[in-house]
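Question thread 4412

I'm putting together a teaching handout and wanted feedback from people who do this every day. The idea is simple: show students a protein as raw sequence, then show them the structure tokens that encode its fold, then repeat with a second protein so they can compare. Below is the first pair exactly as I plan to print it.
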Amino acid sequence: MKIKILGLFLALIMLAINFPPGDQTAQAVGCALVQGKAYKTSQSKTVFFITQACTKRPFNNPQKFFSYFNHWSDVEVTTLTKLAAVPDDTLGFMPWGANYAPQYGALMKSVNNPRVYFIINNKKSWIQTEAVFTGLGYQYQWIEDASDELIAKYQEGEVINYTDHHPDYSIIKYQHSAPVYQIVPDPNGTNTQYKKHLINETVFLSLGLRFDRIVTIDPSESYADLPVTNQSDTPISQTQVGRLAPITTKILRVEIDGDFNPTALMTAANWSLISTVDQNFAGGKTPSQIGRFTATLDADDHDKNGQTLADRVLRHQIYLTFDSEFQLDRQYSLYFNSGNYRWYDYDGTNGSYRAESHTFPTITFTFGQNEAVSQAIKINQLGYSGVSQKKYAYVGYWLGSNGALTIPAGTTYIINRAADGITVTEGILSSRGFDSQAGENVFQINLNNLSSGRYYLEVSGIGRSVIFNIGGNQFNGLYSVARGLYHQRAGISIGNANSDWTHGICHTQVYKSDALEDWGKDFPASTPKQNLLSLTGGWYDAGDYDRRPVHLTTVAHLLAVQEIFSDKLTDNLFNLPESGNGLPDLLDEALFGLKLFEQLQESDGAIRAGVQASGHPAFSGCEGDTLTYWTYAKNRYASYYFASTAAQAGRLLRDKYHQPAQGQALIDKAAKAFAWADSQTTFGTTSPVTRTDDQKKVELNWVRMSAAGSLFTATGQATYQDIFKSLWHDLKGPTHYNTVHFLWNYTQATSDNTDQTLKTEIINRIIASADQFVGYLDQNKYLTSRGPGYNIAWGSGTTATQYVLPVILAYKFKPEQKYIDTVAVNIDYQLGANPNGKSWITGLGYNSPEFPLHLNSMYDSQSEPVPGLPINGPHYKTYTNGICTPEDYWQCMVYNGFYPNMNSIPALQQYAPWSRMAPMNEFTVWTDMGYTIAAFAFQYAVSGENAPVNQKLGAEDYPIWP
């Protein structure tokens, strides 16, 4: 590499000698096309730039194009003759143009000059020699080619001719250590350098720095720590008791937790907004209108005397409307002038009041900066797909008791590059109408013409958005949700080598029982403790510790997406204990989920129906759980489902991953489970909820058909195909998102006796199901594939990725853009482009779930929950007269805590953050996690991104945002 880069330096020197900068910028006489313009022909999509020397260079990607021009309309169409008359430039590629904003910490050089510059604080510092370059730990691949105009934007800085220290404002980390620092000069003006700890991503990004330009240095290069004198870099929500965020240029939201007098909060005279730099607020202003939304924050029985209304603590969101507009980048201070109140701290486990009373603190904010950005602008808070052609932001808000935010028709917006604030596009908000489920007037902003990069929006009368990404972060999303499932593993310990969220070995001891499974009930504590099993495998269902047959749904999802994208879903992706074993990590995770049911297989082939306890664990992580666990009796549904997934996993191991013995063993176990289930006549239990015999028959036939199709594909035995055919005749009605995976394995059959007509019919049914969910997108004001008539309950309003499984499977047969777009739009929704402006996945996004019902997170040493958990979100209910009874019932504590009354709150706004409100703050392996992982795996696989090998993200790396 050193030889190559030295050659590059020499080549550039020669280039500078042979073609001095004056020659490059001189106007050529008689050029067939206008220099400095972009051209294409009608016969080709290739766009060329005409240099000042009358040569042409092709743009090889849109990002390079937009570093010179602001819109595709800047491209002029010419004839082949005229274009051919302009000779090809010797350079052969386009350097970055003057519009490019590399962010600080970049390394850049002009194509006309061999000097390499370090870019920081709007200055360019020349790195004098290659020895200095390598001695400072810079990497050759970091150097970006730039136009002279781009280099000229920066002022001259120092000459870097040393290697014993790093330049001021460099970003460093030490070998084998995670914290990231900025080298800063002594504030007192001495020559001493200090290292300043960049405590989180908010601080890092606010400085305009690049994550891919962090230099790793040797511990021998030592800097003293810069003393922390204030918390100005810390987001408002982490330093203020009252959390403030603007909604528009006239409306502020103040969020406060605890024992407050609602009347005082709703009294305008108690509030005052003052600014020393905005004359409209120089003397202080009171709000002209106040609205409120209140929800239950905590209702745990902390005093252990029985849960009563006295245990309920509320979170208030107060909406203050002022007559004058706030100005971007101006500072304001908000005062609340009415007495002392009890503030409440809630961490999802042990809520407590800070003291008997506190006065309300002054909240100072700069409008449009840090967290003082508009909550009415909703975006994907992790990163939009770079390959989707449906990328949108939304504007709208529900103001609690004040109803829907009014947004005038014709409201304009601009989109700015985050690095330098340059406007790249502008437009008018597009109305999507009133969303009754959200209670909002919804407007849309098209982001499709943006090239990869970081941007923010400014909407007239609304304000500024958070920064968002186009492209990037797709693997980090997959990594996080896949490892969310890893943290659900049962019967093992999770140690420091694989996670910062650790625990010891849990729940290996389980007793046998012949009780018919009933997933809605616990085992009686008097159930005999006999026939002890030692179990390792499977996943905890949700926040608690049961393991269910329906978890095989997630096994099936992981195996299907692994089969579709085997080239991208490889080994060493997720830092699992199995990483490096030669098998794809996603396959390893699926096999771990399957492992439990292998161990629950009896000698006759039957599968026992999961694991349940004598009660519900309450106040401990898995290591502290003292409940007794049993496994249910043998069950046909579990046996068929195991047969389907075991045959599928075995086929992949045997035929694709060179594990013939392990694969065939699983196929044999599958056949044995199928044979036992086929020999039985009773239905057993087929669902976590009560079912009639007719419903049980249908559900049993679905898994039987799936198992037959999977075994036929794995073995080629005609008997299984005959069973599949006979069941398909009765089941080929509507295929829903939660049944389509039962068809997958038959579509992979390759034996000579495969009924090709039937196979084609099955493939077409998958495609038809996919197209149905594509078609649902426009029926929702915030684009999502949730179909009409879906209740907003148990994740149906948040886990939008569950609706795209048919789309993912159909892509295997028809790799069309509409399927990429549909998956992307639903991920956008789940990650913040939704009415709540909230990412519903822990650890991902600016505003992610605070207090999920996840006992291992609630009772561990980490302050933040395990990342990658897709929680349920809003759960809609109404009650006669707007009152839930009995009022001290746990759900009633939530619904009666709402203000305004629950019956007037739109369905998608009925959310309260109390962790133990399971319908809102829990999740499950099978209704949320498998679908989410499949969608994120799809989006990563089609993104064109490459994954780092065995990436290890820890607690300090979360939450992740652009």
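The second pair follows. I'd like the answer to focus on this one:
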Amino acid sequence: MAPRDGVVQATEAPESPPVDIRMYKLFPPPSYAGAIQRSGIVARVLREGCEPVAVLQGPAGSGKTTTMQQILQACSARGWRTAWLSLDEADNDPQRLEAHMEAVAARLERRPAGGRPGGAGTDAGRDLSDWLLDRLSRLGEPVAVFLDEFQALRSETVLHFFRALLQHLPARVRLFISSRTLPELGLATLLVNRQAFVLRADDLRFSCDEAAQFFAADTTLGLRREEVEAIHQRTEGWPAGLQLYRLALANPAVRDALDGLDSDGPRELAEYLTDNVVSLQPPRTQAFLLRTSLLRRMCAPLCEAVTGFGDARLLLAQLDAAGLFVRPLDAGGHWFKYHGLFASFLAAGLRRTSPEQAQEVHAQAARWYVAHDLHEEAVFHALQARDWALAGQTLSAWASRLIASAELVTVERWYEALPFDSVALQPALAIKAAYALTFLRRRDKLRPLVGVLAQHRGRGDVGTTTHPDFALAMAAVFEDDLHGAVRAVDKQEIWHRADGGFPAFELGAAANLLAFGKVAAGDFESARKVLAMARTHNRRGGASFSGGYTAAVGGANLMAEGRLQEALAHLRAGLSEPQARLDKSTAATALPACMLWALYEANELAEMETLAAASRQAIAESAIPDFIAIAHIAISRMHEARGRPEQAAEAVEQLERIGHDSHWPRLVRLADWERVRRAIATGELQRAQAIAERIGPAGQAVPPGWVLLAEDIEGDGFGRLRLAIHRDDLLGASRHFAAESSRQPGRLQRQVKLLVLDALLQRRKGLLNAAHRSLRKALGLARPGGLVRSFLDEGPAVVEMLQHEHRQLLAAPEDPVAGDHDRGARRYVEALLAAAGAGLPWPAERPAPRAAALSPLSEREQEMLLFLCNGVSNKEIATRLFVSENTVKFHLKNIYAKLSVGNRAQAINAARALRLGA
């Protein structure tokens, strides 16, 4: 897209709002005449076998940026691919940082910024570090990435991303970081492992010879060697101090004072020299410097607006040529910025001597930025001018796009900079801030806003963002009051309004919430209709952000109906949409949370583990209790199934901590019921009983007949029934089963789990025929969707019953009418037994079929089938056989066809039955 004042827009999808990319942040500082080449440092950081990560750490003015620019030039001269990113406060918003890191990748791949290469589907379920590492590893040439001003980053999410990046840098990739402070990147470990090294301020200082070379470049000074040595001693080789001296030495008083500055520290010396440098300029230039020093970046039209001078372009060029601490931010020389140290001294002087003039400059700058639709700078200057009304109005207009594109941390940051009373006077801003704080789970910050919005409940209009009910409903979900939230959003506006922009975002969010309530009520068809309306509103509002939540609720709806394969396809499609990989908002995390549940039920544990590693922490910090619960319980059971009891317990403990920290007692109860289930599975019945006795009563009441989403995986109903069965409280278990079965009989996955538990109950009663009737009912309901873990989670007794069922199916005579159905039932049971790792008990009267009855497998296919039977993943097979994953998939497709199976589990089962995998 065409640049707009140094900004391009990275569009995630045709309907989604763009994330602005500040192109000036990607522009390395130009080299300037007279700069001393730090050849020793450059040689040191680029030596053969050097550590891949270099950190240049020192205070402002220590030459970090200039040195990095020279390293970049040296890398470019060697033919390396290079990219530069200047970081700032705004990059603490994960979404904003992601857009700029993708722009860095675009620079390295030599393609335009603002788009993502390849199909978005390749990125499903991956976080930004995985994505970027993959892009870097595909580059066939050496790569150098430069990150300037790293001290601006404080967000733990963002720092976590960089830690992951540093720990897994591909070969041939170098990373250079400049920072005023040592970044919190796990440097101690990196240093010990020789993955990083640090150049500190002492390493960056000019030597006396370098200082002499620096001053010799200006022939007008004529400094003697002893004068150079005196200056070097006063500045301690500090590059900014040397530059200030060079500029100030035109004043004879400065030269005469060389012997009288011994007691001054570096900052005092810099301030003294800055005053002298400015005093040497013509009065008009001095006025220009002072007024423009308040600008974080500047262009000629902006400078003219705040100074009244008509020749700002010429003045900027003159300042740049004179080396007066100003540098261009783009190749065209449109935008500039002062060195931070120089600007801070000038701005402090103006605020001290003429605070009214400083406030006037900020007010003029704010109005100029508003007129040019540059919202962030407009808000900053309006706040500095104490024009709360303008700051709030601008933030409100900007927040419409920020929220829809999930830049929630940015909304939070600027909202906090405003006085609360001024926000309360602007309903639209209060509503938008409430959404951001809800999605970010900022309970303490949200509560005062809820109090303000509640005073206007039922009033206003969605179209003008003055109707607070939908925002209050989202806040109610945060308080785990789904029923109250659904009552608030069940309004005709969802069906009949066709607004665009932020009102459409609100309507889409409300429709998502209403659909979630329909899922809880078991009204799955109504949920589908409401979700279709939500997708329409999402498109109108350009909100791919809330589209993630729409996809998650749709997946939950399918899961509740037992349509597992459809749910997996639906959720994979949702994950292939360009959701923000660093974003921690509700919408961004509900989707992987639901996918973890589906993958666990399908027993796709390898894929699940990859997704869990990428998304677990983000899910833990999201705002919808049910999605947090299903993800953590699924992760715990995955670890349990893979033989990691400690990690399984840790996932349950994390769920409990979240429940306590967020005042969600329901999550604490769910964690305890999962502990009860685990204790039963290990035969610790007394412990299970003790845990159950400590579980308190249910908190917030829900309407009769409702089943909250987390109850589909665990909760009071399953927990009390399971415990009664294993304690041989058969009468109590029968009562629990009857009560639970009557709740939403159309909730198919839940009914399958209840029928499996009933099969165990009847078995305990000694009623084996009744037990197998319940098991067959469960199998019949579960087979179309391919449910797996609903059976296996109940332990060895269910596996034994499945083996018996398999023998019965084999022993039954062929029915020409029901033949296909019977074969399908047998294959499904075989797949379940294969997933359980159980053998197939072939009866003596029916020998196992031989492989000769099949189309013969090629030698390579037999080799792959052997790997398959040993649980080797596609990626590992490709590595061991030195082929691509696509080649593996091609051969597996042929194997499935020859074995007449449809998936990996069935292929393993068939191979064992046919004695091919031995």
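Top answer:
Good format. For the second protein you could add a caption like this: The chain is about 60% helix and 5% strand. Confidence is low (pLDDT under 50) at residues 11-16, 117-125, 842-854.
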